[in-house]
Design goal:
Distance between the termini: 29 Å
CATH class of the largest domain: Mainly Alpha
Number of domains: 2
CATH architecture of the largest domain: Up-down Bundle
Shape: globular
Number of helices: 21
CATH topology of the largest domain: Growth Hormone, Chain: A
Number of strands: 0
CATH superfamily of the largest domain: MFS general substrate transporter like domains
Strand content: under 5%
Structural class: mainly alpha
Low-confidence stretches: 196-215, 414-428
């Protein structure tokens, strides 16, 4: 473990760690979205269907933000877009704490979805700008780790804070986002490449050749990049399976007679496994071909959710969560690294925006499709379908193995990292 932690954190530039810190601060105060449905139904007395509509509107706002945030990151810069996103999020979050009209709440939550999620492609683009290609998998892994640490702590703290009034959740969330913006303003530099030479140190490769002649790459170019869009499509399939934990899993457990407390224990294992295993698992897989990692991760996730159909006790559900969580922590950082490696430097914002759209779309469509399948065909059909979709995603990655084999550079050996860390510090 000590070697894994040392290897995971060595050699990354200091600006990355400030970005990592800002992400952690943001997520530590991320109270509202986790408890929004409970706030609307238990505190405001609104219907479950209205809470579902609000959740869908937040997802729709996130889908818009994925593209909008990516385009803005390329046009006006990563740092300005990130600061606008954080400041707008803080303002909307604070206003939501005082609003009582349901229609206004719905509109503001949709706006919140845009404001909060516009930061995602910016953060991913900054990581791709700052971190050398061979270290991006572990950089994305560390950022994902921060997200999950913050989510776990915020979820636990939000329940205690809510006992003193939900207004404190909204205001606390707004303050955490403002602190995040302050860290970004003072410590995170603008990283948008002005030219291919800036982004590659004067070197050009196949991934950047197009941006050299056309630095203002449009969304049409991104959508016509078949190799990249194949990665986006497979990520969408993976995310559709993964998103079943949000609604289909608790619904299934409820149908089987389990309580909300049982679901809380089961899903809490997901965050615990991510926090404990993210670094050692990705460190242990550092010499495995990234495309192989994606294949195995898709199979694990599909298989884990497929086993849910056989679960009849809380310990069995916990085992299934452990299996698909391993797939989650293997897939997500590696998939993000592929998306970053396939993007021309001057269009990383747009590419990351389209990549983020696959997750926003799955967040919106996955629960809806899951509910439809449960109502129409039963929960067993849904979980069997998850196993099939996971296998389809794995087959898709296998078919792309030759095209993606050399996209990500091999990781730097541990013994070379201290020297690279000094070099990164001097460049900073």
């Amino acid at each position: 473990m000590s070697r894994a932690v040392k290897g995971a954190i060595s050699g990354l530039p200091s600006q990355f760690w400030w970005l990592w810190t800002s992400t952690l601060i943001n997520r530590l105060g991320g109270f509202v979205t986790t408890f929004m449905a409970l706030y609307l139904t238990a505190d405001r007395g609104l219907s479950a269907s209205f809470a579902g509509l609000v959740a869908a509107l937040y997802g729709a706002g996130g889908a818009v933000a994925a593209v909008l945030g990516g385009v803005m990151a390329d046009r006006i810069g990563r740092r300005p877009t990130l600061l606008i996103s954080q400041l707008a999020t803080a303002v909307v979050m604070a206003i939501l704490g005082f609003v009582r009209e349901p229609a206004v709440i719905a509109v503001l939550v949709c706006v919140l979805g845009v404001a909060a999620n516009a930061a995602r492609p910016c953060i991913q683009a900054i990581i791709a700008d700052l971190v050398p290609e061979e270290d991006r998998v572990r950089a994305f892994s560390l950022n994902y780790w921060a997200v999950n640490i913050g989510f776990g702590v915020a979820s636990a703290a939000a329940g205690l804070i809510a006992e003193h009034g939900y207004l404190l959740l909204f205001l606390g969330n707004a303050v955490s986002v403002l602190v995040c913006a302050v860290v970004i303003f003072f410590k995170v530099p603008e990283t948008r490449p002005k030219s291919v030479a800036d982004a590659t140190g004067g070197k050009r490769d196949a991934a950047t050749a197009d941006s050299a002649t056309d630095p203002a790459i449009g969304l049409g170019t991104v959508l016509r990049d078949t190799k990249f869009m194949a990665v986006v499509g497979l990520s969408f399939l993976f995310a559709m399976v993964l998103m079943q934990y949000t609604t289909s899993l608790p619904v299934t457990m409820g149908m089987e007679g389990f309580s909300s407390a049982d679901y809380g224990v089961v899903i809490g294992v997901n965050g615990l496994v991510v926090v404990l295993c993210q670094i050692p698992v990705n460190w242990g897989l550092r010499r495995v071909k990234p495309i192989t990692v994606l294949i195995v991760a898709s199979l694990l996730t599909g298989f884990g959710f497929g086993l849910t159909g056989l679960a009849n006790a809380v310990p069995v559900y916990i085992v299934t969560v452990c299996i698909w969580t391993l797939g989650e922590i293997m897939h997500n950082p590696t998939s993000m690294a592929f998306a970053a490696a396939l993007a021309p430097p001057t269009a990383r914002g747009r590419y990351q925006g389209v990549y983020s759209l696959s997750w926003s779309g799955a967040t919106f469509a996955g629960p809806l499709l899951g509910g439809f399948l449960i109502d129409g065909f039963g929960a067993d059909a849904l979980w069997a379908g998850c196993a099939v979709v996971g296998a389809v995603a794995a087959i898709g990655y296998w078919l792309l193995r030759n095209q993606l084999a050399d996209v990500i550079a091999p990781p730097t050996p541990v013994e070379a990292e201290p020297e690279r860390e000094r070099e990164a510090g001097s460049k900073a």
